[in-house]
Structures are given as structure tokens and as C-alpha cells.
Design a protein that fits this description.
The protein has 458 residues and is of the alpha/beta class. The chain is built from eight helices and 41 strands. Bound molecules: uridine-diphosphate-N-acetylglucosamine (UD1) and calcium ion (CA).
């Protein structure tokens, strides 16, 4: 049988978010709310229509081609939103209608909804869920025989209806012929002035159509995000899912509760993640790494057998066997080649650190191409900025940079060159030579002792 179409309602402002960002673009584990709904819809439907309104441009920009966008100029309710789509839908078949703010709904449930709808030969099937705290949701009102009669929104509930715990998830399967005949005549709600999609249910039932409800077992999946508390709760559910999938695939997490991974982050087998680790965006990690504690990786590619702790790494590459931290900051455009070491209180920016090179303590390296086997002593600094322009530095294979030296860019330190500790170097150093650039030392006999003793008398 042909797959149904999908319509996703995503035009609302999301007043309760108190935000300038349209609700469906709020982020959950690195992806907007709407992304999750679309992903689930894509697996079970053929062709998705997005109803957009608030922040329409932003939504289009994010999701791009591949969907039909229909603009709802004024947000006059969920029924009004679906009315806008009618001209774009075929005359027969089925349509799955979803809200853009229910990111936890899985495609398996949508599939069950569709097949239940077909088995029952219904004109409309509502996806419902039992909720311990149903407040804020539309309630499913059934008649004596247990048939769905209507859906009543929170605002309009009688005290008796308030006790009903079966809620409307906002997802439905409709027969297109029935939808096309009755949706245009939806009444305007007298209190809110909106056209509620939920009002279609009693209309269809009264006209003698079969209206059904499919109850999902895992009620948590039905969560609709209306405010930031619900957003945070949904994010923690999503994290559990992401972490569980990775642990099943062979990743060890010392404390999954404090491991924060964006949707789509990849991690290889036998990698161990210590607590308080965050991985965002397009981060990809290889096998057998030891990452964390206290690590933040953003859009970073990590090879195999990398050790990286207490560090922030952005848009960079850490090759096999690199050893980073504790307390390192690696900024965009950097490559730490195989086996290289970046130690404590070191900042690297837009630089390549060659194979097996070491920058172990208290250094800044910016706009630098460093060859293999280089040793940067403690406190050595690349001076890449003259107050106006950034300049580049190259340090060739096997060079030794003494402690506390300043390399003033633009500069080239040749292969196997040696820079004496404490030097300020502003001219290129030829391969194999020694550069020393510091004042000569003067020792004054006895002056130290005298100095210390006069101090003691005070
Ligand atoms: C809606 C349902 C409620 C259900 C709940 C499930 C109605 C009247 N109520 O309530 O029964 O329990 O979802 O989460 O349908 N939207 C538009 N255009 C509009 C208004 C809304 O596109 O004019 C979109 C929103 O962007 C959102 C979705 O429809 O993605 C639901 O809207 P929302 O305002 O969140 O409805 P609820 O009050 O949660
Ligand atoms: Ca909602």
C-alpha cells in the first residue's frame, strides 16, 4: 500500500517559550525540535508538507529543499494551519498530521498509528496517551461505549473532564476524502477566536464517520514542548537514548548521566568517556580513546587511541595517539598530528603540530606550521599578532625551542635549530643553528648575602 503524506504544523510562535526564536527551531541535543519530527515522519510517509509562519525564513533556511512549505500568514489555530495545506494534498489516500513540537515521537509509533487506522477503516485516528499529569493537553472524551466523542482543550474543561488522563498527542491519521469534505467548515472557537483542529473529531463522528484512538504505551514519547522546562526534560530523555545506543555499540561511559552528546556524534568501540564530557555538532571519535573528564569537543575529528582531558577543542583534528590536556584550549583550524602532545595551560590556534611534537606546558601557538619532533619548552610563546596583523610562523622538524622564548612572527625556525631559553627571536633561524638573544648575566660577589641580611633586620 502507498505510504501516506505527512503534514507537520510548525507555524506557531511558541508564546510560552518566551523567546525570539520560533519554537520549532529550539535546540534539543544539537538539532531543532522540528528536525526530530521530520526524521520520524520521513521513514513512514511519502512527501512531507511543512506549515510555517513564525520565523518562516529561518525554518526554510535550516531545512532547505526537499519539502513542500506552505505559509500560514496568521496563526489562527491548528485547524486553520491544516486548512492552508488542503490544496496541496491529493483527493484520496491518507495523511498523517503531526505537530512540530513533539520531538520524542518515534517512527515505530507512527507506523502503528497508520496500520491501526487502516485495520479499523477509520476516517480519523487520534494518537492518544495516558498521562499522570495531563494538564495543558487536550483531553479525549469518550462515550459510554468507549468511542471517541470529542477532544476538549484545557481552557474549556469541565471539572469532571479535568480528571480525564487520556490526552491528545496532536498526531492524527486522516482519510483525505473525509478531511477535504469537512475541514473547511471548522467552526471558530468563540473564546480564543482560533480554529481548533480538535473540533474536527466531533464533526466527523456526528456525520457518521468512524473515529478511532490509538493509545501509545510509552506516554513519554507524547511530550509536546511548550516551555523551557519541557524542553529540558525532553533533552534529558533524548540524551538517554543517544547514550544508550552508543553504549550498545561498544562505548564505555563512566557516568552516562553527565555525558552530553549531540544527535549524530559518532564514537568508536572501546573508547571510554569520563564524566562531564560534552561533544557537539559534527564531532567524530575513533576507537580506544580516553576522553574526559571535563572535556568539550565541538565539530572535532578525533582519531584512534587519543587521550584528551579537561580541554576545549573546536573545529580541529586530533590524530591517532595524540595526548591532550589537562587544561588545554585548541581553537579552530588546528591539527594535532599523530602522537603529538599538548599539555597543561596550552592554547593552540589555527596551527599544525607535527607528528610526535611536544608543547607540554604554558604555551601559546598561533598561525604556526610545526614539523615533526619539535619540542616547545615551558612558557614559550608564538607572537603572531603585532597589534594590526596576524603573521605566520614555521618551525621545522626537530627544532628545540627553549623555555620562555618569544618567537616573533613572521618567522622561520629551520630544521634542527636550537633556541636558547629566554630568547626573543625576531629573525629567521637557519637549520641546525643556535639562536640566543638575551642580556649577558652579571654576578656581583657577596651582594646577594648583603641584600638578604638587610632585609632580615627590618
Ligand atoms: C495542541 C492540541 C492539544 C494537544 C497538544 C499536544 C489543538 C487545538 N490542541 O495543543 O489537543 O493535546 O497540541 O501537544 O490542536 N500551530 C500552527 N499554527 C497555528 C497554531 C499552532 O502551525 O495557528 C502549530 C504549532 O507550531 C505547534 C502545533 O501546531 O507545532 C501545536 O500548537 P500548540 O500551540 O503547541 O498547541 P497546544 O496548545 O500544545
Ligand atoms: Ca504544543
Amino acid at each position: 500500500m502507498e505510504q501516506p503524506r505527512a503534514v507537520i504544523l510548525a507555524a506557531g510562535e511558541g508564546t510560552r517559550m518566551k523567546s525570539s526564536l520560533p519554537k520549532v527551531l529550539h535546540m534539543l541535543c544539537g538539532r531543532p525540535l522540528l528536525w526530530y519530527v521530520l526524521e520520524s515522519a520521513k521513514t513512514v510517509t511519502a512527501g512531507q508538507v511543512l506549515v510555517i509562519g513564525h520565523g518562516a525564513e529561518q525554518v526554510r533556511d535550516y531545512f532547505g529543499e526537499g519539502f513542500t512549505y506552505v505559509e500560514q500568514q496568521q496563526q489562527l489555530g491548528t485547524g486553520h494551519a491544516l486548512q492552508q495545506v488542503l490544496p496541496y494534498l491529493p483527493g484520496s489516500g491518507e495523511v498523517l498530521v503531526l505537530c512540530g513540537d513533539t520531538p520524542l515521537l518515534e517512527s515505530a509509533v507512527l507506523e502503528q498509528l497508520i496500520s491501526f487506522h487502516r485495520q479499523q477503516g477509520a476516517a480519523a485516528t487520534v494518537l492518544t496517551a495516558p498521562m499522570n499529569d495531563p494538564s495543558g493537553y487536550g483531553r479525549i472524551i469518550r462515550d459510554q461505549q468507549g468511542r471517541v466523542q470529542k477532544i476538549v482543550e484545557e481552557l474549556h474543561l469541565t471539572p469532571e473532564q479535568k480528571m480525564v488522563q487520556e490526552i491528545n498527542t496532536g498526531s492524527y491519521c486522516f482519510d483525505l476524502q473525509a478531511l477535504k469534505s469537512f475541514l473547511p467548515s471548522l467552526p471558530q472557537n468563540t473564546i480564543k477566536g482560533e480554529y481548533y483542529l480538535t473540533e474536527l473529531i466531533p464533526i466527523l463522528a456526528d456525520a457518521g464517520y468512524k473515529v478511532e484512538a490509538y493509545v501509545i504505551e510509552d506516554a513519554q514519547q507524547a511530550l509536546g514542548i511548550n516551555d523551557r522546562l519541557q524542553l529540558a526534560w525532553a533533552a534529558s530523555r533524548m540524551r538517554e537514548k543517544i547514550n544508550a545506543a552508543l553504549m550498545r555499540s561498544g562505548v564505555t561511559m563512566i557516568d552516562p548521566a553527565t555525558t552530553y552528546l549531540d544527535m549524530g556524534v559518532e564514537i568508536g568501540r572501546d573508547t571510554v568517556i569520563y564524566p562531564q564530557t560534552i561533544m557537539e555538532g559534527k564531532t567524530r571519535v575513533g576507537q580506544n580513546c580516553r576522553l574526559g573528564p571535563g572535556l568539550h569537543l565541538i565539530d572535532t575529528i578525533v582519531g584512534d587511541e587519543v587521550t584528551c582531558r579537561q580541554a576545549v577543542v573546536m573545529e580541529s583534528v586530533l590524530q591517532d595517539g595524540a595526548n591532550i590536556g589537562p587544561y588545554a584550549y585548541i581553537r579552530p583550524g588546528s591539527t594535532i598530528e599523530a602522537g603529538a602532545k599538548i599539555g597543561d595551560f596550552v592554547e593552540i590556534k589555527n596551527s599544525t603540530i607535527g607528528r610526535g611534537s611536544k608543547v607540554p606546558h604554558l604555551s601559546y601557538v598561533g598561525d604556526t606550521q610545526m614539523g615533526p619532533g619539535v619540542n616547545m619548552g615551558a612558557g614559550s610563546i608564538v607572537v603572531n599578532f603585532d597589534g594590526r596583523h596576524k603573521h605566520v610562523t614555521s618551525i621545522e622538524e626537530g627544532a628545540f625551542i627553549g623555555c620562555n622564548s618569544n618567537l616573533i612572527a613572521p618567522l622561520k625556525v629551520g630544521k634542527g635549530a636550537f633556541i636558547a631559553a629566554g630568547s626573543t627571536v625576531s629573525r629567521d633561524v637557519p637549520p641546525g643553528s643556535l639562536a640566543i638573544s638575551r642580556p649577558k648575566q652579571d654576578n656581583k660577589e657577596g651582594l646577594g648575602r648583603r641584600f638578604l641580611e638587610t632585609k632580615k633586620e627590618k
